[in-house]
Design brief:
Strand content: 15-25%
Largest sheet: 7 strands, mixed
Oligomer: single chain
Length: 163
């Protein structure tokens, strides 16, 4: 096969990445049964308030994926996680796990799962955009925690880190 016959992956234009701000989800939605990347996208919530952030995410995902039935969240990263929310007149069940893996798991139907990296709300815009762009690459095999550690600056004294 000639090099010209190999399809090039479609990447988002730089303008898209510059427009990313808190409250944005970047997704790589594949219609094949074999999704090879570790992550299907990234989400940069504005806060750690589940009832404020999750409904908007689920509404947007429903437009592209169909009805979302479950959302799995890291219990250590979010304020009070209810067991379910009513979103767009549908019940969405919330699961919480104390795993600290910087992801949110989205379930469509019974068995179709999508993993999104969660960028911390207080992340600087350039660092957030870099991490999100890396997470949505189709050939990404890096876990969310590793992407965030490599991309985000260490916490300052104001954020609870050592001075």
């Amino acid at each position: 096969m000639a090099d010209s016959d190999i399809p090039t992956p479609l990447l988002l234009p730089d303008e898209i990445h510059q427009a990313v701000r808190p409250g944005t989800a970047l997704l790589r939605l594949e219609t094949t049964h074999s999704r090879q990347g570790v992550l299907d996208g990234a989400w940069w919530p504005r806060t750690r308030d589940v009832e404020q952030e999750v409904p908007a995410l689920v509404s947007v995902l429903t437009e592209h994926l169909g009805p979302i039935t479950r959302v799995g969240l890291d219990a250590t990263a979010w304020d009070e996680i209810p067991t379910r929310l009513i979103i767009d007149d549908r019940v969405v069940h919330l699961d919480s796990f104390p795993i600290g893996d910087d992801t949110v798991l989205i379930t469509r139907g019974d068995k179709d799962h999508f993993a999104l990296m969660v960028v911390p709300p207080d992340t600087e815009p350039d660092a957030a955009r870099t991490a999100m762009a890396r997470a949505v690459h189709a050939d990404n095999i890096t876990q969310a925690t590793e992407i965030l550690v490599a991309t985000l600056p260490p916490p300052t004294a104001d954020q609870g880190g050592a001075a």
